[in-house]
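Shipment paperwork, digital attachment
Item: protein structure file
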Amino acid sequence: MGLLDGKVAIITGAGGGIGRSHAMLFAKEGAKVVVNDVGGTRDGSGSDASAAEKVAAEIKEAGGTAVSNHDSVATSEGAQAIIQSAIQAFGRADLLVNNAGILRDKTFLKMDEPMFDTVIAVHLKGTFLTSQAMAKQLTAQGEGGRIVNTTSVSGMLGNFGQANYAAAKAGIYGLTRTMSIELQKHRITVNALAPIAKTRMTEDLPMYQGTSSLTPAHISPAALFLVSDLCADKTGYVLAVAGARMYAFKVTETSGRFKEEGDGVWTAQEIAEAWEGIMK
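Attachment content:
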């Protein structure tokens, strides 16, 4: 018995790296998998259907069930087509992992508008569009379901040279939190992963040089947990994985300070004087 027996899983950006690892593991655990990938380069240009087709073929060769899909998450038509590919092939959809992504890194002062817009379109808008199409399908089915989004350490903490990517990933955190609140009544859980792994997307970044322990295989068990019944009704969480380390990101607030004198309106000078206490 597999953890995902009888489930239909859709994984975007599954033609390589972390997405491929998710797809292979989910299939091994009994899921029927839609392997989605445009097959473009790291910066999102071009397309190659063979990327998704190769992973689907690997799953079938290993005894699993899979179909490939090459639609883009960045358009409403593409997002809807991705979900429909599951319906056409398997009659339903149960699980979605939003993993598709591109990089167009540039320092803030040198980044142009197309660099910003394209990354936002794939990561943030793509997550919104595909999740909404999936949520409508799950609501119509009336049996609940699971959505896992992919945020990033860059989105939670910021990172040099990644203003576009960090903004998109931070937006995915806020989107995940809101989706988890709104979709809970439909028994749809929504969580996020913040993975650190050496892949085609990241292999030339300084933080990944000389590393061998930050692999996609470390990430996928966390995704499996979040889409399985083991996750129960847990929703709205960000699970981070970096090699053998697993932890969580949370947005917290300090205890702060109350202005007890006068009408409660702070002056700029008072804020400066009370800064340390406000930050605690």
